[in-house]
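Try this one yourself first.
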């Protein structure tokens, strides 16, 4: 259940990151409300997931999902650069997310 909450928290991070663009500096009430609501829900879900998952793993995956998702949506919605190097780096973020999800937990001494 913690992994599902973490994944949803990451998706909501994408929502609020993109919402920042649409809110135009919190000058548009509807977009600002959606953005702030997504921020609160995303943080709450991250906090719930971090109750059982290692914080370093949870936080890295949360930010990775948000960063990769926001970058990809920036390309699709706002015509941001599609250079191969940029796409390769987004791919590396995704590899890191997958690696952290499936890496075995280190044993504590």
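Now uncover the answer:
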């Amino acid at each position: 259940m913690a992994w599902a909450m973490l994944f949803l928290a990451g998706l909501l991070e994408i929502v609020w990151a993109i919402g920042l663009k649409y809110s135009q500096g919190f000058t548009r009430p509807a977009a600002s409300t959606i953005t702030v609501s997504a921020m609160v829900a995303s943080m709450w879900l991250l906090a719930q997931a971090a109750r059982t998952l290692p914080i370093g793993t949870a936080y890295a995956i949360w930010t990775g999902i948000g960063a990769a998702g926001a970058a990809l949506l920036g390309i699709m919605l706002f015509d941001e650069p599609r250079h191969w190097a940029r796409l390769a780096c987004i791919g590396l973020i995704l590899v890191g997310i997958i690696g952290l999800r499936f890496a075995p937990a280190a044993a504590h001494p």
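Discussion: The radius of gyration is 15 Å. DSSP finds four helices and no strands in the chain.
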